[in-house]
Amino acid sequence: MKAESGRNIHVTGSKVVGVVSCVPKKEVRNEYFHSTFTEQGVTDVIKMIGVQTRRWVDDNVSAGDLCLAAGKKLLNDLNWDPSTIDALIFISQTPDYRLPSTALTLQREMKISQRCIAFDINLGCSGYPYALWLGMTMIQSGAASRVLLAVGDTISKIVDPQDRATAMLFGDAGSMTAIESATSEDQAFFILGSDGKGANNLIIPKGGFKDYTKANDARLKDKNSACLYMDGGEIFNFTLKTIPTLVNETIEFAGLTLASYDYLLFHQANLFMLKHLAKKIKCPYEKFPININQFGNTSCASIPLLITTDLSKNFTKQGAQVGMFGFGVGYSWASASIDLSNLKVAELIEYESV
Amino acid sequence: MSEFYEGMAEIFEVNVNQISSDFDLHGADAPWDSLAIVSTIALVDDCFNIMLDGQSLTACNFVSDIEALISSVKSA
């Protein structure tokens, strides 16, 4: 089949064996925002986004730090020697530095061999399925047998605390996922798509090497151009137009039906959107886990966070057939249909600031 | 149209009798903000299986403008 919603790719010969997520210890509850937006103002927004509490890093902690803590725990639990890692990919929009790649400091700190492929990918909410596709493809190509995917963001550092649209929505999280070579019976199905027409609807206008404020976009009036700008209506519209088709095509491409899946893991964008998506694709709530209430929208880390919270024991004890759907900034979207029966580790840890 | 009006009443937290074509989206009862617009996109999708875009909705002043948008997408 040729999918309408993106490029469909079938990858064989690798499996996901472990996922550890790491969230900051600091919890920020909704009451924190009352002084800025008033109690009623907060209630109105929370009714829509569904976030009750979120975790935020301290100033001196980065997404790389969260991923590093997750990575150390993961290697320990899997009993993997760092010298056996062939590739490490860091996926984030909040890297440690503009250069060098955060993957390289992770390689150093995790004591991974110099004979390792290490680089960053700049993707947000769609990042996790993209990372799995790339890591598994590297294994299929013979370039690597063991790959680590460090996926995390600290969006709390780039929101304007005065901007009602974003200030309460996001939480911080990092994760590390281990994949390794397997038999040709282990397979995964991906659909990957992009539409740069949405680039200006979720953007930090300044701070890179081009200044979007010079485009005179009227929506940016009175906005802090060093912070994240989000046109919520446009993002919502994009999601409802694109994702139901992506879900249906992913299920069809994998040769399955909705009933064959134990869970569909959606990027935790906002609660209202998730509920509307569930209704639109006719997915029963028990197959549609939601944890945005506990952690907020954690960008690319939201899918690994779903694997490692309430459902983690279901994955490691019984295994599960899952669909994963990431979508947002770019616009960029990606899905994966994977059997997680080989998952030995699925843990959530808290980051302790030193 | 009644399901649509019921939904609009819920979005603006007013009695459904208050919603009509000439309901002012920028009136005292109606903060026509991004939350209301996103809710309206979802409502129109639910009621008519039609996707309106956020920027066209932002430009609406009355419920009749939204109804005109729905009709124009239906007939397109």
State the largest interface.
A-B, 16 and 16 residues
Measured by DSSP, the beta-strand proportion of chain B falls in under 5%
Q: What does the average pLDDT of chain A come to?
A: 95
The ordered string of helix (H) and strand (E) elements of chain B is HHHH
* Overall domain count of chain A: 1
The tally of structural domains of chain B comes to 1
Low-pLDDT runs of chain B: none
List the helices and strands and how they pair.
The complex is a heterodimer of chains A (354) and B (76).
Chain A: E1 7-12, E2 14-24, E3 27-29, H1 34-37, H2 39-49, E4 53-55, H3 63-78, E5 87-91, H4 102-109, E6 117-121, H5 127-141, E7 146-151, E8 153-154, E9 172-181, E10 187-194, E11 202-203, E12 229-230, H6 232-253, E13 263-266, H7 271-280, H8 292-295, H9 302-308, H10 312-318, E14 321-328, E15 332-339, E16 345-351
Parallel strand pairs in A: 2-16, 5-6, 5-7, 13-14
Antiparallel strand pairs in A: 1-10, 2-9, 3-4, 7-9, 8-9, 10-15, 11-12, 14-15
Chain B: H1 2-12, H2 34-48, H3 54-58, H4 63-75
Helix pairs in contact in B: 1-2
Commentary on this structure:
- Chain A is an alpha/beta fold and 354 residues long.
- Chain A has a single domain (1-354), classed as 3-Layer(aba) Sandwich (Peroxisomal Thiolase, Chain A, domain 1), CATH 3.40.47.
- Chain A is built from ten helices and 16 strands.
- Chain A has helices spanning 34-37, 39-49, 63-78, 102-109, 127-141, 232-253, 271-280, 292-295, 302-308, 312-318; strands at residues 7-12, 14-24, 27-29, 53-55, 87-91, 117-121, 146-151, 153-154, 172-181, 187-194, 202-203, 229-230, 263-266, 321-328, 332-339, 345-351.
- In chain A, a hairpin with a 3-residue loop joins β14 and β15 (332-339).
- Chain B has one domain (2-75): Orthogonal Bundle (Non-ribosomal Peptide Synthetase Peptidyl Carrier Protein, Chain A), CATH 1.10.1200.
- In chain B, 58% of the residues lie in helices and 0% in strands.
- The longest helix of chain B is centred in the middle third of the chain and has 15 residues, at 34-48.
- Classes of the chains: A alpha/beta (354), B mainly alpha (76).
- Chain A binds chain B through residues 44-45, 48, 165, 231-234, 236-237, 240-241, 272, 276, 279-280, and chain B through 34-35, 37-39, 41-42, 45-46, 51-55, 57-58.
